Amino acid sequence: MTPTLPRTVRAVDTAQLLDLAQEAAMHGFSQRLPVAWLRENLAAEATHYLFPTLVQRLTHRPETPLQWRCQQLLTVNTGEQIWGLLDVLPDTFGKIPETLDTASKKNIVSRIERAVTVLEWMERIGAEAGS
Fold it and tell me: How far apart are the C-alpha atoms of 26 and 32, rounded to whole Å?
């Protein structure tokens, strides 16, 4: 039976996000950023947010566990918030404490919808560095 996708947002600190990315890498999940990239670019003391949007089952890779594809709002070392994706095990997501009220969750989802993507941010930073 497929676990029900929660309609919630969870907050994690940078260390927790790095652990989630490491777990995704260990399982070979397709939607994740490299842990080294995250270490280099995330604001160390920031809070990041995960919003599950899709149940992901890899039928062509039956050994891969079911995962929830989460939209993530990341705070990078420039202070900006950018949008990315991260596949997370349902049990792992369930262990992240529920700390946000309804208004905060709605605000975060709205910010995710307006945020630039990781790729757009990287292209802009690269262009600025080359100027």
Answer: 11
Phi, psi for 87 (deg, rounded to 5): -85, 130
pLDDT digits (tens, 9 = 90+) for 25-77: 998 888 899 999 999 999 999 999 999 999 987 667 677 788 999 999 999 99
pTM (two decimals): 0.91
Strands, sheet with 116-117, edge to edge from the N-terminal-most edge strand: 10-13, 47-56, 67-75, 81-88, 116-117
Q: Where are the alpha helices (DSSP H) in 13-89?
A: 14-27, 35-41
Alpha-carbon radius of gyration of the chain = 15
